[in-house]
């Protein structure tokens, strides 16, 4: 080992330049991480293959500007030097440095890190007067030469650089070490990798155009980092993440200031940043530093509905109470991502630029500013969705500069829109690689998969003793969970079992499949497709607990007192099961309702098990209700597609009791597994908490409930649950549903966390009213469950052997990183699912004429009042949207005596529980929870996602809604009469047995009657209903 000195030029906290001399030690033995090594290097972990034609050593400039190209998995044998990594950290910041580190650590990418600055023969000191860039290039070239010599000339080494002087100086110095440009490298070695060529051209053009068009400053300069840090500590500045308003992106943005509300009550609602100038080049999601403006300049949020992104008004009468307002003075962290933009049609505006190839592309996300793109394909890309990345945003430019990455397709095409949704939510789901698929077990007709005899010997075999069955949505392929219940001990005890697919048996920790599953974190469900977290051989086959096949499982078995249902014993362990029945929800409900007339002995046993299961689930739910569990309401709509994926209907989800039964059993298993792993590993368990919502999040709920004459208590979850149960309008069941939907919207999001980072009082799950909770029951589609399965396995092993787990568990910091990653991906999955549902809602209405098609006219319920309109819910389609009562021309909606509405000149007046319009035709009033009739059409734009436009056409309920109410009333009367009769139930047809959901009269028959009566007068309808009942 040789001791030397390294001189660093750093900046102090006050901004002064400091010269630091540090000891620096050089070694002869430094790992080379090559499989061709003959020098016995300690190459632990990932190594470069020996079957490639060359190794690639990029210089500093290439990694700084072209790292995206080096991320292509096709490029193999890449050696990143320590010199390069340190330069990235110094010039690009921590985010880009972490991106490079993650690339090097990822075993799916064929690249390594060489510590050239610690290797005795590759280290080079900086010469006096030598520029930093030239010194870096010399260090990288020396490392390339060392690699070639170290491997005894068995592998050629290619150094890639954009420095023409370096190419001239070094290209012919050493045989076997080549120095070429990136363009030559791609043309010579990867001529068919077109995506890399296109990306290189795009980045190169962006770099050439980086200089601004003018020297005139459009924005103020950001303050230095040391000044920002000092200002934050002193309280002069406020730090937070910038959140741009979706509805008023041009003017409104806010800063969420966690932890500051206790110090300054003014900041409890956050900080407003009003206008683009005050935003000072910050983009949605950036971590920024804000200086508060004087109180006289504070603004309030606009309370009127916004019709479009370009029509924002700043009238004082439409603003809420003024809130702290500031301006951005610095950016601590850029959180730029991939953005989808649309290239506009070339017109006079675009051609006025000095360079006709510089285009202002419009982002799909309203919150992102236009991005200036330099390209030679401007004409070809018109009206296309294109993925771009932002490179810079100088103070002399009104817009950020960027480069293109990928062309998705023409705007408006289904595949383009789906890919846009994925990319906008940072969802990357490429096909599983060959290397990942090679890790999978084989299951084919020629070579069927069979259980390992060793596993059979180790596991508890439930195949001959337990009636196991699954209940899932119809057509479900990834069956995670099955259930069992039986009487034991002479009927004194019940044994409840939850059996979950044993995914961790097939997915080894640290394998390529495991890393890919961790990266995805979840299965992504869209309206017309899904993207699996695991390869299909696992998700749809060997891990799916299908009916009639033997499968490995992780089971939790409770012994319950048959009378009190108190737990007397619980068992956790690996099992072997064979599911006897693979039920869908509707069929399970039909069995519970006694609708299957023909039953054999085994089917009768299944029905008895379902009845016992329902009895236990009701008890479990009642126990949670006592603790304050919430029954919330969401908007779930399924797009019904034909074979060609054309949308034929929008179907709201119909709740069944069996849904609750299955959910209660899963919640119970998750709760008990959470207890087990937290008690065994107090500081290293992955749990899921649900924090209590902030009081101000309930404002919409409280205002609407109060206006409707209801009192909602939000002090605790128990008080909220009880007050929601009481908030019922006997004349309109939708009122309670709407209030529960508002309560759902007010909820904070449940989050995964490591128990080592939170105190135990923070473990509580507010919505479920449980002291500990986790996710264990869906390992096929959630990576968090895989982590929990491994923790449970380790806990079981410790109980068995009374020893520490063989493999060390992840520390609480590492586990917390995993938890945060999963939380982010879960949010992305929820947003993508919501956006895809909205996409198909628009597709359903897009091909219909709103003036003539009856599907475009629907009943809507008012659930919120705004300054210039109302917010409504359309239960038939699960749509929540604004309805404007005042348009851009100043006209207002006026309702005639028959309820029909038209536009007239007039004014709008808002109250807490209603809004009134006054015009020459008189005064029209729209009250909270009123039913009105709306016409639905599609608002199309090339640049952004399509949206639904709702227009009120009558202040009275839609005619079909009146029919539904009349049919339901008469059906309820008929139901009471039917219960008094003891006539034998008729045999059901196959179709009725498969699709019916409840006892007669059921939803299917009600909707059939509504359809038949849709064109009948109300008086006639009542007579027909009475007859059929």
TrEMBL record:
Residue ranges, annotated region (Disordered): 301-325, 975-1000
SMART domains membership: RNB (SM00955)
Compartments in which it is found: Cytoplasm
Major localization listed first in the record, in broad terms: cytoplasm
Keywords: Cytoplasm, Exonuclease, Exosome, Hydrolase, Magnesium, Nuclease, RNA-binding
The protein's required cofactors: Mg(2+)
Gene Ontology molecular functions: enzyme binding; exoribonuclease II activity; RNA binding
SUPFAM superfamilies (UniProt xref): Nucleic acid-binding proteins
Regions of compositional bias (Basic and acidic residues) in chain numbering: 310-320, 979-997
Transmembrane segments: none
Domain RNB: 459-798
Pfam families xrefs: OB_Dis3 (PF17849), RNB (PF00773), Rrp44_CSD1 (PF17216)
The organism's place on the tree of life at top rank: Eukaryota
Catalysed reaction equations from the record: Exonucleolytic cleavage in the 3'- to 5'-direction to yield nucleoside 5'-phosphates
An annotated GO cellular component: cytoplasmic exosome (RNase complex)
One GO BP annotation of this record: mRNA catabolic process
Enzyme Commission number(s) from the entry: 3.1.13.1
PANTHER family attached to this UniProt entry: DIS3-LIKE EXONUCLEASE 1, RIBONUCLEASE
Similarity field: Belongs to the RNR ribonuclease family.
Name of the protein described by the UniProt record: DIS3-like exonuclease 1
Species of origin: Labrus bergylta (ballan wrasse)
């Amino acid at each position: 080992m040789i001791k030397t000195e390294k001189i660093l030029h750093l900046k102090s906290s006050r901004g002064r330049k400091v010269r630091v001399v540090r000891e620096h030690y050089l070694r002869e033995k430094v790992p080379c991480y090559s499989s061709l090594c003959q020098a016995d290097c300690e190459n632990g972990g990932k190594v470069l293959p020996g079957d490639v034609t060359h190794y690639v050593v990029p210089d500093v400039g290439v990694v700084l500007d072209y790292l995206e190209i080096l991320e292509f998995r096709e490029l193999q044998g890449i050696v990143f030097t320590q010199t390069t990594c340190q330069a990235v950290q110094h010039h690009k910041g921590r985010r880009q440095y972490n991106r490079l580190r993650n690339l090097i650590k990822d075993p799916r990418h064929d690249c390594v890190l060489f510590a050239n600055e610690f290797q005795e023969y590759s280290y080079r000191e900086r010469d006096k007067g030598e520029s930093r860039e030239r010194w870096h290039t010399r260090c990288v070239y020396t490392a390339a030469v060392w690699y070639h010599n170290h491997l005894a000339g068995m592998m050629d080494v290619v150094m890639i650089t954009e420095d023409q002087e370096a190419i001239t100086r070094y290209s012919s110095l050493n045989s076997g070490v080549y120095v070429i440009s990136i363009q030559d490298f791609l043309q010579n070695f990867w001529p068919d990798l077109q995506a890399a060529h296109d990306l290189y051209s795009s980045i190169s053009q962006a770099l050439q155009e980086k200089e601004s068009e003018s020297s005139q400053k459009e924005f103020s300069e950001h303050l230095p980092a040391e000044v920002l840090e000092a200002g934050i500590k002193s309280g002069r500045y406020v730090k937070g993440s910038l959140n741009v308003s979706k509805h008023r992106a041009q003017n409104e943005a806010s800063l969420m200031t966690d932890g500051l509300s206790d110090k300054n009550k003014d900041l409890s609602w956050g900080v407003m940043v009003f206008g683009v100038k005050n935003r000072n080049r910050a983009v949605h999601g950036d971590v920024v530093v804000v200086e508060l403006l004087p109180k006289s300049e504070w603004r309030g949020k606009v309370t009127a509905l916004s019709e479009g992104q370009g029509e924002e008004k700043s009238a004082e009468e439409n603003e809420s109470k003024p809130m702290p307002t500031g301006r951005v003075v610095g950016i601590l962290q850029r959180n730029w991502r991939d953005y989808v933009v649309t290239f506009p049609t070339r017109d006079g505006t675009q051609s006025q630029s000095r360079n006709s190839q510089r285009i202002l592309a419009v982002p799909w996300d309203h919150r992102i500013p236009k991005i200036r793109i330099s390209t030679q394909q401007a004409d070809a890309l018109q009206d296309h969705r294109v993925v771009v990345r932002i490179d810079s945003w100088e103070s002399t430019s009104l817009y950020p500069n960027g480069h293109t990455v990928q062309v998705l397709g023409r705007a408006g095409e289904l595949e383009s829109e789906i890919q846009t949704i994925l990319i906008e939510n940072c969802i990357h789901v490429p096909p599983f690689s060959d290397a990942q698929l090679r890790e999978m077990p084989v299951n084919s007709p020629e070579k069927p998969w069979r259980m390992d005899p060793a596993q059979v010997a180790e596991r508890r075999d439930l195949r001959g003793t337990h009636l196991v069955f699954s209940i899932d949505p119809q057509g479900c392929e990834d069956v995670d969970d099955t259930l069992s219940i039986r009487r034991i001990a002479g009927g004194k005890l019940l044994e409840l079992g939850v059996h979950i697919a044993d995914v961790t048996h097939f997915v080894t920790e640290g394998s390529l499949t495991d890393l890919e599953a961790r990266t995805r974190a979840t299965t992504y469900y869209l309206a017309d497709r899904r993207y699996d977290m695991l390869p299909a051989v696992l998700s749809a086959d060997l891990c799916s607990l299908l009916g009639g096949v033997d499968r490995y499982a992780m089971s939790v078995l409770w012994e319950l007192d048959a009378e009190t249902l108190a737990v007397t014993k619980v068992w956790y362990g690996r099992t072997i099961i064979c599911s006897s029945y693979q039920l869908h929800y509707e069929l399970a409900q039909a069995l519970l309702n006694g609708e299957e007339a023909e039953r054999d002995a085994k089917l009768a046993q299944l029905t008895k098990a379902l009845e016992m299961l329902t009895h236990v689930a009701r008890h479990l739910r009642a126990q949670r209700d006592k603790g304050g569990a919430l029954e919330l309401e969401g908007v779930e709509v399924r797009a019904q597609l034909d074979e060609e994926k054309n949308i034929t209907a929008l179907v709201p989800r119909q709740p069944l009791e069996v849904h609750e039964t299955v959910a209660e059993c899963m919640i119970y298993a998750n709760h008990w597994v959470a207890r087990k792993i937290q008690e065994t590993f107090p500081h290293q368990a992955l749990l899921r908490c649900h924090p209590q919502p902030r009081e101000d999040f309930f404002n919409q709920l409280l205002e609407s409930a109060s206006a409707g004459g209801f009192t909602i208590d939000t002090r605790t979850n128990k008080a909220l649950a009880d007050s929601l149960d009481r908030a019922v309008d006997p004349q309109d069941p939708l009122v309670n549903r709407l209030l529960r939907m508002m309560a759902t919207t007010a909820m904070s999001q449940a989050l995964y966390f490591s128990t080592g980072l939170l105190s135990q009082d923070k473990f509580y799950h507010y919505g479920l009213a449980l002291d500990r909770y986790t996710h264990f029951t869906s390992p096929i589609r959630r990576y968090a469950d895989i982590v929990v399965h491994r923790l449970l396995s380790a806990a079981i092993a410790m109980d068995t052997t009374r020893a520490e787990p063989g493999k060390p568990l992840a520390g609480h910091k590492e586990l917390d990183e995993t938890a945060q990653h999963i939380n982010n991906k879960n949010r992305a999955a929820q947003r993508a699912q919501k956006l895809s549902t909205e996409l198909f809602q628009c597709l359903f209405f897009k091909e219909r004429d709103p003036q003539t098609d009856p599907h475009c006219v629907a009943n809507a319920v008012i659930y919120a009042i705004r300054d210039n309109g109302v917010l409504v819910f359309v239960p038939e389609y699960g749509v929540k949207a604004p309805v404007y009562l005042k348009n851009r021309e100043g006209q207002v909606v006026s309702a005639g005596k028959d309820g029909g509405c038209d536009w007239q000149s007039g004014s709008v007046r808002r109250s807490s529980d209603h809004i009134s319009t006054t015009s020459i035709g008189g005064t029209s009033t729209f009250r909270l929870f009123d039913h009105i009739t709306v016409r639905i059409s599609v608002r199309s734009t090339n640049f952004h996602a399509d949206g639904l436009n709702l227009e009120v056409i009558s202040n009275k309920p839609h005619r079909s809604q009146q029919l539904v109410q009349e049919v339901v009333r008469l059906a309820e009367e008929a139901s009471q009469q039917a219960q008094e009769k003891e006539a034998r139930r008729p045999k059901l047809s196959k179709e009725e047995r498969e699709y019916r959901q409840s006892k007669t009269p059921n939803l299917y028959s009600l909707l059939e009657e509504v359809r038949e009566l849709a064109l009948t007068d109300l008086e006639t309808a009542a007579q027909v209903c009475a007859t059929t009942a």
